[in-house]
Each structure stands twice: as C-alpha cells, then as structure tokens.
TrEMBL record:
<dbReference type="InterPro" id="IPR035584">
    <property type="entry name" value="PurF_N"/>
</dbReference>
<keyword id="KW-0411">Iron-sulfur</keyword>
<keyword id="KW-0315">Glutamine amidotransferase</keyword>
<dbReference type="InterPro" id="IPR017932">
    <property type="entry name" value="GATase_2_dom"/>
</dbReference>
<comment type="pathway">
    <text>Purine metabolism; IMP biosynthesis via de novo pathway; N(1)-(5-phospho-D-ribosyl)glycinamide from 5-phospho-alpha-D-ribose 1-diphosphate: step 1/2.</text>
</comment>
<dbReference type="GO" id="GO:0046872">
    <property type="term" value="F:metal ion binding"/>
</dbReference>
<dbReference type="InterPro" id="IPR005854">
    <property type="entry name" value="PurF"/>
</dbReference>
<feature type="active site" description="Nucleophile">
    <location>
        <position position="14"/>
    </location>
</feature>
<feature type="domain" description="Glutamine amidotransferase type-2">
    <location>
        <begin position="14"/>
        <end position="256"/>
    </location>
</feature>
<comment type="similarity">
    <text>In the C-terminal section; belongs to the purine/pyrimidine phosphoribosyltransferase family.</text>
</comment>
<feature type="binding site">
    <location>
        <position position="421"/>
    </location>
    <ligand>
        <name>[4Fe-4S] cluster</name>
    </ligand>
</feature>
<keyword id="KW-0658">Purine biosynthesis</keyword>
<feature type="binding site">
    <location>
        <position position="384"/>
    </location>
    <ligand>
        <name>Mg(2+)</name>
    </ligand>
</feature>
<feature type="binding site">
    <location>
        <position position="479"/>
    </location>
    <ligand>
        <name>[4Fe-4S] cluster</name>
    </ligand>
</feature>
<feature type="binding site">
    <location>
        <position position="322"/>
    </location>
    <ligand>
        <name>Mg(2+)</name>
    </ligand>
</feature>
<keyword id="KW-0004">4Fe-4S</keyword>
<protein>
    <recommendedName>
        <fullName>Amidophosphoribosyltransferase</fullName>
        <ecNumber>2.4.2.14</ecNumber>
    </recommendedName>
</protein>
Amino acid sequence: MSIEEDDRQLRHECGVFGCIASDPWPTDLDVAQIISLGLLALQHRGQESAGIAMSEGDNHTHFNVKKGMGLVSNIFNDEATKNLKGNLGIGHTRYSTSAGSEEVNCQPFVVHSAHGALAVAHNGELFNAGRLRRMVLARGVGLSTHSDSELITQALCLNPPDIEIDGPDWPARIRHFMELTKLSYSIVIMEKDRIFGVRDPYGNRPLCIGKLMSLTEPNKAEEGWVVSSESCGFLSMGAKYVRDVYPGEIVEFTKEGFHTVSVMGRPHNRPQAFCIFEYVYFARPDSIYEGQMVYSVRLRSGIVLARESFVEADIVSSVPESGTAAAHGFSMKSNIPFAEVLYKNRYVGRTFIQPNARLRRLGVAKKFGAIVENVAGKRLILIDDSIVRGTTMGPIIKLLRDAGAKEVHIRVASPPLKFTCNMGINIPTKAELIANKLTIEQLAKHIGADTLAYLSVEGLKEAVTEKMPNKNAVEVGHCTACLTGEYPEELTF
C-alpha cells in the first residue's frame, strides 16, 4: 500500500487458508509449514493477529491450536510449526472491523460441540450480524466475543432444519447458515478429517483452490490441496492454482481430493457482487481473480485512465507501490515515459514518533524521498490507487515541488470513495471521506495539485471485465457499493 495505514484507514479484515494432505496418512507433508507460508503470503490482508488449528484426522475431540497477536513470522517460527502436528489444518490472519484488536478475537475459532471439535476461519463481515446475534442468544447460546465470526461458529452448531439421524450433517448445517445470511463471507471450516471451503452466494469475498504438486516427481499425483483467500502464495509452496470457489459453493476437501457439495443461488436471481476494490487496492498483484491476474487489471485501469484524463507532461510516475501498475498502463497509452520520482522507506514502522511540530508538518518525509534528477524542472503525472482522507497526498506533492517539480498532476486509478462498506472493509464514515467534503477542483487546490482526475466507475468496470474469460456470462457482476452506494442487499440490523 502506498501510504501509512493510519492515514488512509482503509483496511481489509482478514485472510483465510486451509491445507489437507492426500492419502496416505500420516503424511510426510509439513502441513503446518505450508499453512504458515500461506498466511505469510496473505499478511497484507491483516496484521493484527494470526492463528492455525491442526487435526491429525483420527480424533474428533482435539485440535492442535496456536494463536497470537502480531505478524505471522513472529508467531509461527520453526519451533512453533514443528509442534503443530497434523494431516490437515486451517489458518487465519486478521485485521479487526466488527470486534476489537484483542487476543480473544484471534481466529480460527474452535468450539467443542456434542458432535466433536469444529474450527472456523472467516473473511468478511456479516451484513445482518445484529439479527443473527439475537437469534443465537435467544437459543441459549453464550458468546465470548463481539466478533461476527464467532456467530458463524455458533450458528453451525445449531440444529439444521432437517433431522440428523447418524451424527452431524455438516453440509446441511452450512447450508442452513447460508440461508440465515447471504453476505459477506469466505470461510474455511475444519472438522476431524475434512475441510469445507464456503463462499457467500454473491461471491463478495474471494476464495480459491490450489493443488500441491510433488517437488521431486513431476508426474506424481498431487500431494494435497490448499484453499486460500488469494492465490499469491501458491508458487512459494509448490502449489498450482486450479480455480476459484464459485459464489454460493460449498467445497469439501478430504484426503481423496475435493468435490462440490452444494451451490446456493442468489435471491431473486440478483447478479454476483465480487468486491471490485479487491482489484483496486487489497489484493497482491500476483493473485488471480476470476481467471485473470490482478496486475493486468491494474495495468488496464491506467490505460483507461489515460484515455479518460490525458494531460501533457514529461514523466508519468506513481506513489509506490500501489499505483505502479496503473502508472505503467497510463504511460503505455499516453506515450509519456515512466520514471520513478519517489523512493519509499520500507523500514519505517507505524509507531514512528514525530517529536515536534516541524516534523509533523513534514510527516511524509519519514516515508518517502524524492528522486531529484527525475523531478527537477519536470511536469509530472503522479498515479495513485485511491484517495481516502486526502491527508497524505498534499505532503507528497509538497515534497515533489520542493524537489523542483514544475507541475504535478494527480491521477487516481479508481473512482472516488463516497460510501462505507459493511462487508469486511474498514472504510471511514462518509463524513471522513474527502470525496464527500470537496469537489474535484477544491480537492486539487487543497492538496496543491495542478489538476486532479479519477477513473470513472464505468472505466473501472471496463478494466476489470475486458479480459475476463467469462465476461459475457449473465451472472458476472461486481460490488461497487463504496463507490456508488448500490449494495447487493439492504443492510439489516
């Protein structure tokens, strides 16, 4: 992300990951290490806490669990992963939205029901969490946290609509939960010897499947399966992207492989609503969504932005690193050369202290330096992925002008943020979003830019769908609620 999270206050809730080894068990595959690598690749989706729950596959009452506050690399060192034995497991890395940043809210949540242990990890935010909480409490179920993710765990332990004859019917219980709430979740669920991957009927949050390939015998059958919020970590663990979990799909993973248990449709044949801001901001550029690389979508966003909002300049550049792909696209379309103008200091933490008023006014200096040779006397086009509060772009422009920039034109590779999310992204209140306070002309003046332009909503949709393999399918659709105020379903409390 291009600037400090404290300034932008635009954060994803979490990432989920699961892994199961193929037959035979016990496996030689280091499942805990693979999950740790998967969570490390998903660290950008949440940095407050992380956890892993493991199962040997032969005991329905006990899981090996480790959770803690902080980064994945600090919690899961070599010693920690060695102690997490098992043939299957799920993991989670978290940033809080609906509940506080406390150890009690760390996931995966593990409950011990009459039918055995169950572990759940959730990405998203339940649209009707208040109603579901009241329903769970009315059934006499106690809740230990304010997390809507715990509601999922407890709702799964409630009896499903049909009578169970021979033990719990977990697929039926999952379908029952999906009837209770349609948004927003991607979930991995583990019981004794299997994992379920579940995506809400709108497909609002991402989830994909990977195949663990043999590193020594290329023609050997798969060594296991992984399910993840993003595919970006697959290559680092020797996995191959297979496909997305479909909206409304329940996928069951066992040591024999995976198969679809059920697919739940959307109410009233409404379109899919995959979060379009995943492409803009949250996903790693090397992830695959809907059959296409996120980097390529960002590149096309820059191409469309150049077509919509061209301006004469000497150099196209970006706020590193979030705007870089779009800046290359803008450069390609405009025939204006790309050059770096900002250096990002990667060793500045969020807890940096600014001891006096002078350093506070120069706050951006701790994060960026200007590459003077590329700036002095030049007309610059600076690309960023979004403007949230507008508190950081002004100091960046001042830094560039102090380095000798002749003109600074800001181009934003997404439409203005005007609405809150309520589906797993922590976006400030409408009153805090700068696009609701100032017109484009007023904002340009406020941050000190010569001109300012955003990518249009239609332009973003074009960039996202242009190379999508099934772009003409009737069910394709994207959630633009934070940009347009058009939510997939009405928010209920």
